[in-house]
Structures are given as C-alpha cells and as structure tokens.
Design a protein that fits this description.
Elements lengths: L1 E5 L3 H12 L3 E6 L2 H10 L1 E4 L5 E4 L2 E4 L11 E4 L8 H12 L3 E4 L6 H5 L8 E6 L2 E6 L2 E6 L2 E6 L6 H20 L3 E4 L3 H22 L13 H17 L8 H11 L6 H7 L10 H9 L6 H14 L2
Parallel strand pairs: 1-2, 1-6, 2-5, 3-10, 6-7, 7-8, 11-12
Antiparallel strand pairs: 3-4, 8-11, 9-10
The structure holds pantoate (PAF).
Length: 314
Amino acid sequence: MQVWCVGAGSVGLLLASKLALAGADVTVIARSEEQAEQIRTNGILLRQQEGAVLDIRVQTSVIREMNPDQTPNWILLTVKQQHITEGLVAEMGRRCRAGARLLCFQNGIGHIERLHPDVPASRLDWAVTTEGARKEGPATISHTGRGLTRIGSALPEIPANEAEIAEKEQKKLAELLNAAGFVTFVSNNMREIAWNKLLMNAVINPLTAILECRNGELLNSEALAPLMRTLYEEGADAAAAAGIRLHEDLWNQLLDVCRKTANNHSSMLQDLLAGRTTEIDWLNGALLAEARARQLALPTHEAVYRLVKAKEKR
Ligand code: PAF
C-alpha cells in the first residue's frame, strides 16, 4: 500500500516509521528541505517503548515538490491545524480527485470544513488517536505511550455505494495500522469521537500552558479543581447544544489522562515554550465559535482562550 505522511511532526514520524516497518511503501512529505534532507540521509530514528532504537528508511520530499504525477492510496495528513493553508487544501483536493483517500489526524475541530469541498466527502476521513510520541530531533521520534486509534468517514452523509467503498478502504488501512502496532478501529461516529477528545484537550491544554506545568500537576491543586470542572461543564454544554453525545464517563477519563500523562508537557505548552503558535483556535476557539453560533456563552473558555493568545504574543 502506498502511503504519504504529509507533516513530519511527532505523529507523522511515528506513523511513517512504524508503517514502513510493517511493509508499507511510505513517503514522508516534510515542510522544510532541511528536515527532508535529514530523513533522506539518516532515515527516521525510532526509539521504541522498550528502549530499542531502529533506523528506518523511507522516501521523502517537501510539500511544494510533491510529485505531480503520483497518487498514493492514502495520504495521512498530520500537519497541525495552523499549517493547513489554502495551498495545501487545493493540493489535497487535487490528489483526492485523482484517487487518493485523505485521513486527517489534527487535534480539535474545523479542519474538515476547510478541506471539504476541495476534498470530496467520499474520500475525506477523520482519525483520532491517543498514541503518545515525542519528537526529539528533525528525524528522531520516541514512542512514549500506546493508545487507541479510531478512523472513519469525516462526512458520513454520502451515498450508500460510496460509503461501502469508503468502509472497505478504511478496513484495509486499519489492518495495516494494526499490523504496525497501532490498535485501530473503524467507526462511523468520528465527529462525536473528535468532540470527546476536543473537550479533554480544551481543559488540559490551556491550563497546563498558562500555568506552565506538567499534566499531572493539574490534579495536585485544590484551587484548580473547580476551574477544571467549570471548563469541562461549559464544554459539555457547548457539545449538547451542537447535538453531540459525550461519553458518560468523560470527566473520569480526563482525570485519567492527566494521571497517565502526569510527566508530559501538553502539546500546547510545548508550542508556547518553543515560541510557536498554538492550536488554541481549533480547541477552545472552536468551542467558543460553536457556542456563539447557538447564543451560548462560555466565559471560562473565553478567559483561558484570551490568556493563551496573550502568551502566544510574548
Ligand atoms: O495535546 C496533548 O498534549 C495531549 O492530547 C494530551 C492528552 C493533553 C496529553 O498531553
């Protein structure tokens, strides 16, 4: 199976290296020529959870030099939300109309609406993963935690014959992902799954970013507990208003994620510490937009949104 991983951050490098190990024909499409050159020369160094380090060879290119005549079976889009530019959307649309399927791994919501209609609904898939990975260099990746990956149609309201083809292709990819060591299920409810993860991220990420603390520290403060709960409840109100059913145990799952990733810096804190813009617009910002469209106020999300925006500018 031919797979392009567009985006060579932590998730992109993890997927690319492990899929290549499982026998897929993988090309990594990086954002910079320097990174592509490193991958070309040294391969991807994958530090597995047991500590073994493997050097994995894959093909590589940069986004602006993607071979115009090639169409892979799958494009795994792993760039951050803020890097889904108009140009990239047009490029993804072109490849998908030529036969590729696109699977999007972004945190948060909003990207599906930006990719469609350039990318036809019948070829646009959504992935939500809880695999843990840390990028340690331009071509070095550590697999830090096993998780669960769910994939499925992003816009399931497609004609039955197209839905049948989509499901067949998704099952084939899920088989490959499972063979690569990622526990993967095909779902027909990706929007709901993405919202459940969105809510966790919209509580953990801004608080750890503002306080500059590790995920586990959120659980050690009595002062923070009511703030976390209020963020959660406001988010749950926005979900209910949008017609999304949340997992009934989601609050406990959120606390569990803090425990299991206690020593991690959230991706939002990592972005701030590295001077990058964060994904706040597609997490709390997206929740605020959804709520605003339904005349619902989320004052605590508004406050953390503004605080993170202020920190981005410093
Ligand atoms: O964005 C992140 O960092 C992760 O999704 C999570 C769950 C908050 C753990 O660090």
